[in-house]
Structure formats: structure tokens, C-alpha cells
């Protein structure tokens, strides 16, 4: 994962594991800290001293479960937001951005993802 040459880095920016980030076309303000497995996309701007200069601890985070039920298929590059449930046998289109639950055996596609017909209806 690269750090593109068109990334603007402020003073004191720390990227702890540069081999595990993907930064392109963005700007990071002074004293920003970037952890592993982060992607910051084109035209994004991160302000200076995010998290007031302190690394977040476990107390600063909470997990939100995301569920993918049996038999669901997710196309390449799809984004599933935290807390969403993908129903059993559902199909998620490539590149879709899924912001709401997808019922069992339904198709979701687009940005943001919209529900299509039931897979079972299509088989009739």
C-alpha cells in the first residue's frame, strides 16, 4: 500500500507503519498520527493534532458488530458500514456502499446501495 507523491504532510506527521497505509491525493495536518490499515483518499483533509495529540486507547473505541449471514455474496470493492447485517443468500454488487441492513435473499447495488428484487423472485 503506497503513500502517493501527491500527499501533503504537515510538520510532525507520524505514520507508524507506512507499508500498511494507502494515502493518495490527501493532506494531513501538523502532528497527525496515522496507524496501520488506513486509507485516506483524494481530496480528504485531516486537521492538525487529531485526538489532541494523544493516541487513542481501548477506552476511546467501541466495536459495532457487522454480520454477514450464511450464503451471502459480496462483490469486490464493496463497503459495508459497521452495524449492518447482510442477510442469508443476499447479493451485494461490486463497489456498492451498504449503509442499511439487506434482507435475506435480496440484491443491493449502487452508491449508496439500494435494494433490488429478491433473488428468489428472479428465479421464478
What's this, in brief?
Helix content is 3%, strand content 30%.
Percent of residues in β-strands = 25-35%
Give the class from helix and strand content and strand pairing: mainly beta
Number of extended strands: 15
* Continuous helix count: 1
Secondary-structure element sequence?
EEEEEEEEEEEEEEEH
* Rounded average pLDDT: 87
Strand order, sheet with most strands:
9-12-14-15
Describe, in plain words, how this protein is organized in 3D.
With 124 residues, the chain is mainly beta. The protein has one helix at 119-122; strands at 8-9, 14-15, 21-23, 27-28, 33-34, 38-40, 45-46, 67-68, 73-74, 79-80, 85-86, 91-92, 97-98, 106-109, 114-118. Strands 9-12-14-15 form a four-stranded mixed beta sheet. A three-stranded parallel beta sheet has the order 1-4-7, with no helix packed on it. It starts with 7 loop residues before the first strand and ends with a helix.
Question: SSE layout and pairings?
Answer:
Layout: E1 8-9, E2 14-15, E3 21-23, E4 27-28, E5 33-34, E6 38-40, E7 45-46, E8 67-68, E9 73-74, E10 79-80, E11 85-86, E12 91-92, E13 97-98, E14 106-109, E15 114-118, H1 119-122
Parallel strand pairs: 1-4, 2-5, 3-6, 4-7, 8-11, 9-12, 10-13, 12-14
Antiparallel strand pairs: 14-15
Amino acid at each position: 500500500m503506497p503513500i502517493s507523491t501527491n500527499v501533503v504532510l504537515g510538520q510532525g506527521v507520524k505514520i507508524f507503519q507506512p507499508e500498511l497505509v494507502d494515502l493518495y491525493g490527501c493532506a494531513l495536518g501538523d502532528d497527525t498520527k496515522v496507524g496501520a490499515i488506513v486509507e485516506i483518499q483524494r481530496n480528504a483533509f485531516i486537521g492538525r493534532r487529531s485526538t489532541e495529540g494523544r493516541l487513542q486507547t481501548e477506552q476511546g473505541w467501541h466495536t459495532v458488530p457487522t454480520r454477514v449471514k450464511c450464503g451471502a455474496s459480496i462483490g469486490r470493492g464493496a463497503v459495508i458500514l459497521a452495524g449492518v447485517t447482510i442477510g442469508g443468500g443476499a447479493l451485494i454488487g461490486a463497489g456498492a456502499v451498504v449503509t442499511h441492513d439487506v434482507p435475506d435473499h435480496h440484491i443491493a447495488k449502487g452508491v449508496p446501495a439500494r435494494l433490488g428484487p429478491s433473488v428468489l423472485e428472479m428465479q421464478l
